[in-house]
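Service request form, structural biology core

Requester: graduate student, group of Dr. S.
Request type: structure prediction, single chain
Budget code: on file
Notes: please return the result as structure tokens.

Sequence provided:
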Amino acid sequence: MLSGALKSLFAVSENYPDLKANQNFLKLQEELSDLENKIAAARRYYNSAIKEYDNALEVFPSNLIANIFNFKKIKNYFETKEEEKAVPKVDFSDKK
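Core staff response, request fulfilled:
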């Protein structure tokens, strides 16, 4: 969703040259791009941790401990739903 919003935001900025040159807007673009990268990295880390945990449940000797304490596989990787991927509308017009 954030990725789609960024694309929309950058497209809108092309139509408003004053906005594109504004330092605050440039800083906002930079911070949003950074935030998107951090979220993607956290998602990859989370999914990797789940994969490592699930693999450890199957490998000797950790599978012995997992069976004793009844640890279960997680299997729920972080994925976005289709309705969450909708791109929000960005409008910088002065209409009120």
